[in-house]
Design goal:
binds 3-methylcatechol, alpha/beta, binds fe (iii) ion, six-stranded mixed β-sheet, 14 strands, about 280 residues, Protocatechuate 3,4-Dioxygenase, subunit A, about 20% strand
Length: about 280
């Protein structure tokens, strides 16, 4: 019998924070714009405090919790679950192509390159899950195929764990950078992922449990699709009828992003989904 080490909030939180800290972030926000945003953000919080009659004990618990989130390395997790969807909504206002969704905390760039017809790297154990054959084409907004478009794909395994954020998994498990063919087409074989549970042993889990909420995201595929001269799209795909599709803790499901794979004679699930990219 094998036992797997269950990833803890501390484990995955710290890994997500370490990854984020290695990225260089900047924004060209003017002092005037920052002042306006800061004023409204603090004003919104002040209003909540006054409307709900928040007490000193509650204020102190809040302060302690904020400290815990930072010390536990869970800011990437908490922010991507509860805040990122609103930022994505702003981005979506200016886009016409395939709908985007949040990136979440577990993207890792530079996954191994794979040809247009490929199988994602997976463990022997993963082969017990239902195989999923994902076909389609990357096009521009007029439906013209884009040869050599890039699909970065990453997702959780059949137990809900992401490689590089769970110590028992090989580095690039269920991650790949797929290069489409001359017409933008691809046929990617992977497995059906499981729903993802926010780690319940850390401050993000405490926050959810203390209000009797649920810590689940529906099973999903993460993708970033890109091509020269096109705006890349960061998105997720979900599975029709799956648990938590209608009540994702991260509020990141859109009706246009729900797949309905059909079982084939080969024992694999098959689905087609095409991506249309906006001009850059
Ligand atoms: C995930 O897998 C995810 O996609 C998000 C947004 C947050 C936590 C875990
Ligand atoms: Fe995810």
């Amino acid at each position: 019998m094998t036992t797997i080490e269950s990833p803890t909030a501390a484990g995955s939180g710290t890994a997500a924070t370490d990854k984020f800290k290695r990225e260089r972030v900047s924004a060209d926000t003017s002092p005037e714009r920052l002042a306006a945003i800061a004023k409204d953000a603090l004003g919104a919080l002040h209003k909540v405090i006054l409307d709900h009659g928040v007490t000193y004990p509650e204020y102190r618990v809040f302060k302690q919790w904020l400290i815990d989130v930072g010390e536990g390395g869970e800011w990437p997790l908490f922010l991507d679950v509860f805040i990122e969807h609103a930022v994505e909504e702003v981005l979506a206002r200016s886009r016409k192509g395939t709908k985007g969704s949040i990136e979440g905390p577990y993207y890792v760039p530079n996954a191994p390159k794979l040809p247009s017809v490929c199988t994602l790297p997976m463990r022997e154990e993963d082969k017990k899950a239902t195989p999923l054959v994902f076909t389609g084409q990357v096009t521009d907004l007029d439906g013209n195929g884009i040869g050599g478009a890039i699909i970065e794909l990453w997702h959780a395994d059949e137990e809900g764990y992401y490689s590089q954020f769970a110590p028992h998994l090989p580095k690039w498990n269920l991650r790949g950078t797929i290069v489409t063919d001359d017409e933008g087409r691809y046929e990617i074989t992977t497995i059906q992922p499981a729903p993802y549970q926010i780690p319940t042993d850390g401050p993000t889990g405490q926050f959810i449990e203390a209000q009797n909420g649920h810590p689940w995201r529906p099973a999903h595929l993460h993708l970033i699709v890109s091509a020269p001269g096109k705006e890349s799209v960061t998105t997720q795909l979900y599975f029709k009828g799956g648990d938590w599709v209608a009540n994702d803790v991260a509020s990141a499901v859109k009706p246009e992003l729900i797949l309905d794979p059909q079982p084939g004679d080969d024992g694999k699930n098959h689905v087609t989904y095409n991506f249309a990219l906006d001009p850059a």
